[in-house]
Amino acid sequence: MAPPLLHLRDIALTFGGTPLLTSAELQVGEGDRIGLVGRNGSGKSTLLKIAAGLVEADHGERFVQPGRTIRYLPQEPDLSAYATVLDYASGGLAPGDDPYRAQYLLDVLGLTGREAPAQLSGGEKRRAALARTLAPEPDILLLDEPTNHLDLPAIEWLESELASMRSAIVLISHDRRFLADLTRATVWIDRGIARRLDKGFAHFEAWRDEVFEQEERDQQKLAQKIKREEHWMTYGVTARRKRNMRRVRELADLRAQKKDHRGPQGTVKLTVGEMEVSGKRVIEARGISKDYGSGPVVKDFSLRILRGDRVGLVGANGAGKTTLLKLLTGELQPDSGEVILGSGLTMVTMDQSRETLKDEDTVAEVLTGSGGDTVMLPDGPRHVVSYMKDFLFAPEQARTPVAALSGGERGRLMLARALARSSNLLVLDEPTNDLDLETLDLLQEMLSDYPGTVLLVSHDRDFLDRVATSTVFAEGGGLWREYAGGYSDMVAQRGEGVSARKGAGDAGSARPAAAKEKPAEERAKKKSRMSFTQQHQLKTLPKEIEKLGKEIGKLQGELEDQTLYARDPKRFDALMAKLTELQTKLAAAEDTWLELEMLAEEEAAD
Question: How far is CA 89 from CA 78, 79, 142, 169, in A?
Answer without folding.
Answer: 12, 9, 16, 19
